[in-house]
């Protein structure tokens, strides 16, 4: 806020009315109060004029008018104006009207008798409240003061009456009470209760087309409404089903805005009517019986309202005053002028005054022209008045705005630089940009009539110093303008649709000028500020975004964010529409109740911002009082259907309910309807699928598909069974009754035809006459075998089998067909060389079913070169009959299958030996094999044929003279007299001679070194050794055990730390050097302890002591303190006996081997040594074909020193042994 010191000399002020009186109705003297307050210097006086005459005395300080305690209320009714005056003039208030009337009361009413109605009729309950200038609010309530539920069917009209479009039984009550609430009089008047009784109609309730209850009588009506008022049109129809109401304006559906639908669409309300709302409105009431229309012609007129009015102003003597006063209205208002409340037509004529339409001009004004001038506009709808103060005075010019003000604005805004002046005549000012010239030279800058400088769409370039100067004086002020970057929302909130229970995030990202610190973010919902709440409903992020958690229906609304700085702000709005599954439909009603149908009607619930797509109707049906039932869906209808006729079954009790469906989900079902029961009736259908399922040869089993319970139609339901032999001349039906299938007829004979029929019946009678079906008694197995069985070869694996039919009598039932039993007995013969031909085991029996009366069948998928046996047998539902005589036949040879396996060996660099096994399916006698090998030429897409060899019937062959540098494809086929079989194809190459590795990678530790190398590709395994010696000490070379070239890794152990070694590969000429890790070993100085004689002496002494200890132990064992028997028992139980400290040592593990059992101890030591020395170090590798190619490493060579044993496979620092290169080429050629 800028603090401006105003230096205005004390001046007089004409009266200005600050509180205008208001028109109202007074019900008592306390209600008589007309306000009239004003300001002015000197203090003005007040007087009232009622109906054009002076009323009361002149009032000082306050002009408010109140009634005296002894006055008559009626004497205050009339039209009033307040006149406020001081020496500068008289101001006049608006014209107001005060209406007086007594407080409304009810006349004594007779108690109304109960009014009877039939269900479906329409009616009106009249209210007729006492008349008053103030319309009361009407409330229809019951004796518990609970509002009567309103709906499309039950509506209150503008006159307060209660309309029923159609009545239902539940409308019956004795306490329909109309309560008239006069708010101004603070009184509620309850009318006498009205009682109605609605009875269910014994006749069929008929639907009827809509008729209008309000407006009544005519098809059109006219309305006159004033601009700014509220207009309510009502359209209350009656009909069955309840009609729906639609509104149109000028031929199109009414659009939302200031037009609202109230009272379930029965009212159309237009708030703040405009001239554009003039026109024709149409109400259309529709149900399934028809529709009715009503036309409302709305005419909009207007009381006077100002479009331009004069303002208070100071003038100097001699100036010209021009007062403009313009008003509009329908019809056009008349404008008149008054001076100090006196019409100008009633004052003396002054040639300096000129009147033109809407303008009063005063030429060469004088001090005597100082006054309050009134402009009044009048038409038939009222009048309006405005006061304008003209003060003629002469004062020197002054600038009221402080000097040196700083204005701040954001780019793009419009800025007003103040330069308020005071003086008479009114001073004129000029603006200039300091050091840049006049401001009016800039197109964005303009000077206002009050002296302010307006700068539009400011930018950084407009930041400058400005000066305002009074013309023809030395008075001036300066002002500074600073322009900042505009605060801007760059990512405004969007319109979100959110499912209830989810979270919603509204974006509001913004940018501000870096010089404007601490911007504030304020979110609002529907115009109300959002504050943080304890339940964390709202959370604001640093970027301005707002998170609304767990949104509910109440969170639906418009959300706006405002980014504010001390200089400017920016705002944007979005919305959250919370969607949910619909609310349950309600007011589910049953009408048009008939024996076999009923009409359901319901009222939709709220769609919760997701349109309803359909309604799901459910039914709960009870066939008897004790029977349980459940809700079942029976119909889905579109969203625009609100009633439906439902077909019902007899002898059932029904309940109904409805649920709504939208995109979010299903609503909860509506409350169940009242139960509705239908009377019993005869069954209307008979069971279906009547048939016989007989299994016993001397009986007939009749069965059928049972009827659903809802088709029983009455009590005592049963099935009547009728049967008779169709081959018998007796036409008499036998009958019986059962409650459920099956029904068995005994002593019928085998496969006898019967006529059968089933009829549904209950206590009221039988259903429709059933249609007879043919059924048969039970079957038995056939008695006769087919004859003349023959087999004709179609190809090598398929034959045609034919036979003669069996007689009809022998089938003893319905012939289902024939079964061919086929069995393969094995291959036809053996090979000429006396070796059995390998073939699969004999086939299991194959059974081929031939349906019906077919007498031939193709049997395929036979094995080549095989012997077969087949028989044919008839069958019916009881089983197979006897088989025909066995028929034997054989199949010819076929080309053999592929060989069973193919492996390779490479005895040299130019040879490959192939090993294979005969085919699993030789399909004849193998006569030999065809071997082909082709050289694979690099860069060529097809191999080159090298040689084709016809191999006799052997299972191995060596191919010689191969190129060691080439790869080959080998094709091997088996042959018999029928041709060549499928080839087995393998790729391979010969193996090259092995050699020791030439490149060794070494990784040294303190007492070992890891040696690794890459085995040669396609090389045979090669055995070698590592030789090593310390560089400094010399001495003999030490050797490792034998190493295979395919190992790829070896660990040399038992080395000294910090020592250089020489390493050689033997055989070979590769020499290497390495040094172990750790400190070097220092040689101890020479002393007697290192002399050989001393070491020998000590060794002899230790040996002697050991011999003495052994002798003592043997002696102790022979003596002991136990008998021999006890010692033997002790040896047996030593492991199970608890040892005490004082008895420990009687026997030990070493003592268990006595001198008398040296062989046992020897055996144990030998076994232990064997396992310890070799068990974990055996490294045996096999080829893919099982050949041994490994090494046996773990024991040192007897010629090498102890402690350097290699155990590559068992050392924890070594990787697992590598797979050795096989001596055969199977690994290269791939799997068999």
UniProtKB/TrEMBL annotation:
Keywords: Cell adhesion, Cell membrane, Cell projection, Disulfide bond, Glycoprotein, Immunoglobulin domain, Membrane, Repeat, Signal, Transmembrane, Transmembrane helix
Transmembrane spans: 1093-1114
Superkingdom, taxonomy of origin: Eukaryota
InterPro entries to which the protein is assigned, alphabetical: FN3_dom, FN3_sf, Ig-like_dom, Ig-like_dom_sf, Ig-like_fold, Ig_I-set, Ig_sub, Ig_sub2
Predominant cellular place of this UniProt entry's protein: membrane
One BP term from GO: axon guidance
Pfam family, one: I-set
Entry keyword annotation includes Oxidoreductase: no
Cellular component terms per the entry's GO annotation: growth cone; plasma membrane
Residue stretches of biased makeup (Basic and acidic residues): 1194-1204
SUPFAM superfamilies referenced in this protein's UniProt entry, alphabetically: Fibronectin type III, Immunoglobulin
Region feature (Disordered): 665-694, 1148-1167, 1189-1232
Subcellular location: Cell membrane; Cell projection, Growth cone
Function in brief: Neural cell adhesion molecule involved in the dynamics of cell adhesion and in the generation of transmembrane signals at tyrosine kinase receptors. During brain development, critical in multiple processes, including neuronal migration, axonal growth and fasciculation, and synaptogenesis. In the mature brain, plays a role in the dynamics of neuronal structure and function, including synaptic plasticity.
Protein name: Neural cell adhesion molecule L1
Organism, as annotated: Phoxinus phoxinus (Eurasian minnow)
Lineage: Eukaryota, Metazoa, Chordata, Craniata, Vertebrata
């Amino acid at each position: 806020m800028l603090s401006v010191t105003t230096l205005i000399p004390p001046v007089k002020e004409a009266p200005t009315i600050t509180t205008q009186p208001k028109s109202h109705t007074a019900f008592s003297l306390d209600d008589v109060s007309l306000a009239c307050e004003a300001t002015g210097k000197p203090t003005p006086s007040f007087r009232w004029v009622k109906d054009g005459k002076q009323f009361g005395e002149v009032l000082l300080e306050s002009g408010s008018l109140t009634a005296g305690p002894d006055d008559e209320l009626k004497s205050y009714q009339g039209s009033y104006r307040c006149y406020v005056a001081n020496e500068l003039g008289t101001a006049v208030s608006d014209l107001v009207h005060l209406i007086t009337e007594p407080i409304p009361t009810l006349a004594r009413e007779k108690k109304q008798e109960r009014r009877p109605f039939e269900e479906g009729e329409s009616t009106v309950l009249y209210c007729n409240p006492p008349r008053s200038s103030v319309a009361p609010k009407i409330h229809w309530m019951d004796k518990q003061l609970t509002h009567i539920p309103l709906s499309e069917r039950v509506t209150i009209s503008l006159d307060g009456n209660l309309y029923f479009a159609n009545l239902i039984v539940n409308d019956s009550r004795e306490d329909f009470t109309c309560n008239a609430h006069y708010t101004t009089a603070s009184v509620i008047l309850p009318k006498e209760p009205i009682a109605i009784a609605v009875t269910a109609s014994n006749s069929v309730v008929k639907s009827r087309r809509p008729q209008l209850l309000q407006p009544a009588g005519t098809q059109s009506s006219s309305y006159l409404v004033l601009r700014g008022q509220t207009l309510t049109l009502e359209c209350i129809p009656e009909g069955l089903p309840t009609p729906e109401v639609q509104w149109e304006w000028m031929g199109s559906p009414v659009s939302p805005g200031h037009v609202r639908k109230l009272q379930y669409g029965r009212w159309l309300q237009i708030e703040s009517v405009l001239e554009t709302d003039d026109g024709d409105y149409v109400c259309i009431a529709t149900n399934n019986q028809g529709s009715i229309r009503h036309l409302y012609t709305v005419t909009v007129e207007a009381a006077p309202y100002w479009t331009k009015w004069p303002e208070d102003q100071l003038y100097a003597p001699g100036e010209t005053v021009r007062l403009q006063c313009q008003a509009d209205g329908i019809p056009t208002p008349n404008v008149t002028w008054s001076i100090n409340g006196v019409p100008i037509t009633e004052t003396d004529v002054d040639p300096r005054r000129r009147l033109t339409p809407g303008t009063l001009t005063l030429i060469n004004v004088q001090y005597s022209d100082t006054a309050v001038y009134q402009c009044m506009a009048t038409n038939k709808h009222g009048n309006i008045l405005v006061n304008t103060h003209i003060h003629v005075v002469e004062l020197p010019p002054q600038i009221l705005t402080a000097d040196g003000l700083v204005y701040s604005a954001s780019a793009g805004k419009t800025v007003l630089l103040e330069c308020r002046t005071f003086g008479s005549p009114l001073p004129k000012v000029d603006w200039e940009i300091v050091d840049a010239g006049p401001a009016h030279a800039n197109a964005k800058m303009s000077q206002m009539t009050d002296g302010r400088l307006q700068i539009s769409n400011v930018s950084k370039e407009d930041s400058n110093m400005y000066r305002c100067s009074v013309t023809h004086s030395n008075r001036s002020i300066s002002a500074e303008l600073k322009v900042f970057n505009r605060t801007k929302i760059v990512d405004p909130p969007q319109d979100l649709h959110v499912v209830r229970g989810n979270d919603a995030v509204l974006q509001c990202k913004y940018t501000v000028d870096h010089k404007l610190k601490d911007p504030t973010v304020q979110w609002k919902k529907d115009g109300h500020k959002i504050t943080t709440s304890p339940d964390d409903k709202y959370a604001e992020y640093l970027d301005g975004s707002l998170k609304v958690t767990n949104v509910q229906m109440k969170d639906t609304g418009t959300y706006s964010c405002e980014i504010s700085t001390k200089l400017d702000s920016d705002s944007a709005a979005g919305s959250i529409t919370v969607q949910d599954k619909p609310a349950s439909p309600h007011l589910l009603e049953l009408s048009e109740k008939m024996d076999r149908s009923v009409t359901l009607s319901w009222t939709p619930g709220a769609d919760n911002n997701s349109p309803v797509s359909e309604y799901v109707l459910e039914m709960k049906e009870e066939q008897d009082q004790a029977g349980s039932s459940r809700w079942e869906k029976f119909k889905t209808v579109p969203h625009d259907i609100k009633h439906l006729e439902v077909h019902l079954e007899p002898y059932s009790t029904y309940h109904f309910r409805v649920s709504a469906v939208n995109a979010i989900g299903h609503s909860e079902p509506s409350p169940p309807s009242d139960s509705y029961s239908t009377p019993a009736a005869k069954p209307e259908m008979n069971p279906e699928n009547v048939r016989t399922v007989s299994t016993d040869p001397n009986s007939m089993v009749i069965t059928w598909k049972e009827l659903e319970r809802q088709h029983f139609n009455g009590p005592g339901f049963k099935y009547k069974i009728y049967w008779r032999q169709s081959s018998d001349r007796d036409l008499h039906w036998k009958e019986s009754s059962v409650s459920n299938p099956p029904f068995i007829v005994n002593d019928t004979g085998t496969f006898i035809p019967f006529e059968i029929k089933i009829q549904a019946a209950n206590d009221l009678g039988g259903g429709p006459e059933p249609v007879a079906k043919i059924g048969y008694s039970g079957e038995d197995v056939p008695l006769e075998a087919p004859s003349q069985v023959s087999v004709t070869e179609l190809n090598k694996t398929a034959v045609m089998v034919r036979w003669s039919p069996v007689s009809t009598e022998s089938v003893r039932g319905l012939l289902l067909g024939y079964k061919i039993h086929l069995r393969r007995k094995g291959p036809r013969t053996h090979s000429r060389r006396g070796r059995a031909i390998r073939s699969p085991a004999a086939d299991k029996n194959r059974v081929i079913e031939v349906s019906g009366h077919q007498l031939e069948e193709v049997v395929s998928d036979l094995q080549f070169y095989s012997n077969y046996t087949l028989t044919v047998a008839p069958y019916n539902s009881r089983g197979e009959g006897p088989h025909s005589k066995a028929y034997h036949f054989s199949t010819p040879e076929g080309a053999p299958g592929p060989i069973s396996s193919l492996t390779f060996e490479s005895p040299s660099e130019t040879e490959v030996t192939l090993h294979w096994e005969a085919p699993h399916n030789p399909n004849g006698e193998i006569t030999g094999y065809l071997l082909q090998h082709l050289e694979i030429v690099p860069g060529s897409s097809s191999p080159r044929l090298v040689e084709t060899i016809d191999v006799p019937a052997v299972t191995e062959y060596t191919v010689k003279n191969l190129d060691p540098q080439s790869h080959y494809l080998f094709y091997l086929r088996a042959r018999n007299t029928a041709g060549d079989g499928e080839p087995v194809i393998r790729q391979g190459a010969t193996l090259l001679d092995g050699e020791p590795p030439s490149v060794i990678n070494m990784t040294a530790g303190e007492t070992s070194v890891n040696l690794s190398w890459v085995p040669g590709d396609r090389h045979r395994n090669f055995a070698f050794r590592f030789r090593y010696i310390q560089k400094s000490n010399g001495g003999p070379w030490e050797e490792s055990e034998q190493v295979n070239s395919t190992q790829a890794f070896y660990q040399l152990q038992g080395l000294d730390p910090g020592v250089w070694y020489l390493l050689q590969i033997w055989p070979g000429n590769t020499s290497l050097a390495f040094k172990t890790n750790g400190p070097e070993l220092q040689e101890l100085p020479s002393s007697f302890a290192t002399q050989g004689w001393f070491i020998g002496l000590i060794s002899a002494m230790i040996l002697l002591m050991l011999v003495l200890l052994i002798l003592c132990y043997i002696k102790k064992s022979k003596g002991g303190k136990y008998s021999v028997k006890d010692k033997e028992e002790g040896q047996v139980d030593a492991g199970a006996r608890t040892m005490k400290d004082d008895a420990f040592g009687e026997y030990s593990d070493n003592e268990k081997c006595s001198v008398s059992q040296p062989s046992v101890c020897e055996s144990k030591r030998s076994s232990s040594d064997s396992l310890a020395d070799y068990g974990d170090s055996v490294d045996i590798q096999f080829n893919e074909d099982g050949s041994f190619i490994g090494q046996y490493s773990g024991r040192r060579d007897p010629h090498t020193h102890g402690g350097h044993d290699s155990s590559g496979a068992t050392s924890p620092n070594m990787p697992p042994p590598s797979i050795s290169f096989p001596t055969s080429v199977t690994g290269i050629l791939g799997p068999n």
